[in-house]
Design goal:
The protein is α/β, with parallel strands linked by helices and about 450 residues long. Helices cover about 40% and strands about 15% of the residues. Helix 7 crosses helix 9.
Length: about 450
Amino acid sequence: MKRTILFATEYWGSHAPGGAEWTNAAWAGALARRGHRVVVVTPNYGGASREDHDGVVIVRPSFPLALFRHAAGEQREAPWLLHRNLPFRAWFSRHIRRMARAEGADLIHAQNKGAVVAGWRAARALGVPFAVTIRDVGLLCPLGAPLSEDWTAFDCSTRDYFDRCVPFFLDNYATDAGALRRARQWLSLRAAWLDQGVRRRALADADLVLGVSRGILSIFPPRLVNAARARVIYSPRPVVSGALEDPASVRRRFGVGAGPLVLYAGKRSLGKGTDVLVRAMDTIRASVPGVTFVLAGKGEIAPPARGDVHVLGSMPQPTLFALYRAADVVVVPSIWPEPLSRVLIEAMDFGRAVVATRVGGSPELVENDVTGLLIAPRDPDALARAVVALLRDPARRARLGAAAASFTARELDEEKLVTELLDAYESVLAQRAEPQPRPA
């Protein structure tokens, strides 16, 4: 049976700030290629109010209270509280409900945490099933990641948040702020905690919870994610269209020499382990003369200015794909519970040798010395040893890269994963269609 699925998300397309949003677009396209209709409802940050791309309808209502506007094609996140307030939730829910009714949506699927409450309320108002995808710990912690220590499970209390997480955040992310700005940030963090309670209620009431890995689902307590309503469905491998740029050409374009190239892609932050890579660089340099480091993406951590370190901003997918092909080793040194790194998926799919940490869902992609190398998080010496070992051994790099590409082709195949997603949808649609017992 062909279905109409409504995706609710606070970001889409050219305004997407990260890999999760590109994954959302991949899912929409995959469902459409199977003959299903996908309607995306997302705020308008500066684009067409409605588009139709090969079976995917994108509707962008204007948010009258939003002061946030993107420049054309710019990738950045909205201000802290824009998606964490009652007016936004009410506005977004109204538009989701309106479009779901007009398009005859069978199910509403919140693809990002900022759309969870609005999607939940719209689904309950219309009596259709509600699904949530868990891509990170943002539905547990307003800060997005519990970085103050290592976590295998996480259920933040009010005391934990204000006594541990907030001070850690202010000490590490607001170091150059004055007293007045820090006070405003503290108030924003308090408001975010109040909003978090509503998000948690919506998550606990979802008909279907989809985790992008077993690792990320395991962190959520049963009171928020009922195991009977939860499934793990990996993100699909990238769909590559058009000719790919020659690796030598992309090296010349960015001024990177012909020597060994280590690539870090993604946000430059504590959670992503950027500082761990920076601390490993000197050891790698000393062991592999002529090595070059490329960091693609934005963030608050700026590596030291050196001729062998190229810091690039956010870039379109084709350019990033070209960088993967130019790299000898791709590193993902995350310390937070990485759900299912889009960088790992893409690098492995292009047959690159990868080094990742044993956190979150990364070990579900990287089998040590089979599809890549796994190391402990927060260990620059271990990262340096792994990178150096691969740079010195082209045959090993080729073996790991080939196994990685084989893994993604087999386990992250679009047809396989879309079938799993449709099966999950049908399970909750069938439950909703069953007659409900009358009270005695």
